[in-house]
Fold:
Amino acid sequence: MAELSADLGDGAEGVFAPIQNQPLRVQIASRLRDAIISGRLHPGTVLVETALAEQMNVSRAPIREAVQLLENDGLVESVAYKGKRVKLLTAREVEEIYSLREIFEVAAVERILAREVSVEPLAACCAAMEEAVRMNDYEALVAADEAFHRTLIRLSDHELLLSLWNNLYMRIHQIMALRHRGERNLAEIAGNHPPIVRALEAGNRAEATRLIAQHTRALADFDPESIAQGSQ
Amino acid sequence: MAELSADLGDGAEGVFAPIQNQPLRVQIASRLRDAIISGRLHPGTVLVETALAEQMNVSRAPIREAVQLLENDGLVESVAYKGKRVKLLTAREVEEIYSLREIFEVAAVERILAREVSVEPLAACCAAMEEAVRMNDYEALVAADEAFHRTLIRLSDHELLLSLWNNLYMRIHQIMALRHRGERNLAEIAGNHPPIVRALEAGNRAEATRLIAQHTRALADFDPESIAQGSQ
DNA sequence: TGACAGAAGGTTGTCGACAATCTTCATTGT
DNA sequence: ACAATGAAGATTGTCGACAACCTTCTGTCA
Structure:
C-alpha cells in the first residue's frame, strides 16, 4: 500500500486515477468559476443560495462557501441586502486589470534578465502559436498565448507573483469572453511574441519592456461598450 | 431620516456613530486577523473550529467562514486532514513579499510621474515622521511610515493595486511583529523618505526608483532565524 | 392622486446535529 | 522488540431549520 500510493503520487503511471475527494465547495466553486469566466454567467447575475443549492442538489452551506471563494477571486461582489452577484465590470476596472498585467510582466522580465534564465520554454510556446496559425485554430492560439505569458511569469521564479497572475488572468479570460470577438489576425498575434523572446535572449531590457507594454496595450484596446453587463 | 443618513455618510460630524451590523464572520475574521498580524497567534498554530466557536460563544458556521476569509488573505493555510493553521513563513516567502512590495512601489512611482500628481500628501507623512522622531515615539513612527507608503500607492490612482497593497502590507505587519525588534535608528528610518519625495517632485524617475528599492531592501534585510515558527 | 403605513415575501445569517474521514493509540502476533 | 491490525478519539464536511433583516407590494388616508 505504501508503494502503491508512492507510484500514484510520483510516476502517475499507475492503473488507477488518483482519488480526489474534493469538498463540495471546491467542486461548486469550480463550476461557478467556469460559468463566470466563460461568460455564461453575465456580470450582474444574482447568485441566490437557495436556488443554487436546489439546482446542484446540495445544502446551502457548501454553496455559501463556494460563493465566498469566488468573492475572494474578485469574480463576485456582495451588494448590501441584495445578496451576491457576478461582479460588474467598469471600464476603469478593465483598464486597471490590464495595467496590472503590464506591471507583472515587466517585473517578470526584470527578474528573468537579472537571473539570466533560459528562455527556451518561451520559444516552445512561440512554436505552438505558429502551429496554431498554420492550422487556423483560434482556440489553440489562445491557449498557446496564455501558456506563453504564464511561462514568462513562471520563469521569473516568484511564486507569489505567479499566484497573483493566475488570479489576474482569470479575470482577463472573463473579459475576453464577454468582449465581442473582433476579427483578429491570428498571424499578427503570434508574431508579437518572438521579438519578445529575442529581446530577452539579447538581454535587452528596454526593448523587452517596450514590446511587453505595446502588446498589453493592444489587448487592452477594447470597446468599453462591448462588455455585456447583466440586467441593471 | 434621509438627511440624517446623509450627514452620517458624508460629513461624519453626527452625534451618533454609524450603525454597523457586521456579520459575525467579519467580526471574527477581524479579531483573528489582528491576533495573527500582531504575532499573538504564531505561525503553525492550529485553528480548531469547535474550540474557537466555544471561546467566542458562536456556532461553527461563522467561524468557518471567518477562517476562510483569512485563508483568502494568505494568513491561514489548509493542511490536509489536519485542519487549518496559521500559515508558516518560509524565508523564500518573506523575500517574495518584500520583492513584491518593491514591484508595487516602483509601479506606483511610474504612474505618479506619468500623471504628474502632487506629492504634497507624502510630504505631510514625512512631517509626521519627523514629529515622531522628536517625541521618540516608535509606534507613531511606524504608523507614519505605513501611511507614507500607502499614500504613495494611493497617489498612483490604481484601486486594484491599492487593494493588493493592503493585503501585502498586512503580511508585512505580521513579519515585523514576529521579527525580533532590532535596535532601529528612528532618525534613519524617517530620513529615508524625504529624498524620495524630492526625487518625485523633480520628476527624477531613476532616482526615485533607486531610493525605493534601497529602502525596501533595507527593510527586507532580516535574520531568517528571527521569525518565530509555531510548534512543528 | 400622491404619500405613508402595514403586511407579506424572500434572502441571508446563524445555529445545532449528524455523518464521514483521518489520525492516533492500544493490542496482538510473529 | 517490532510491525500490523483494530478501535477510539477528534476534526472537518454537510445538512435542515429557524430567525432576523430588508424589500416590495398593497391598501388606506389626506
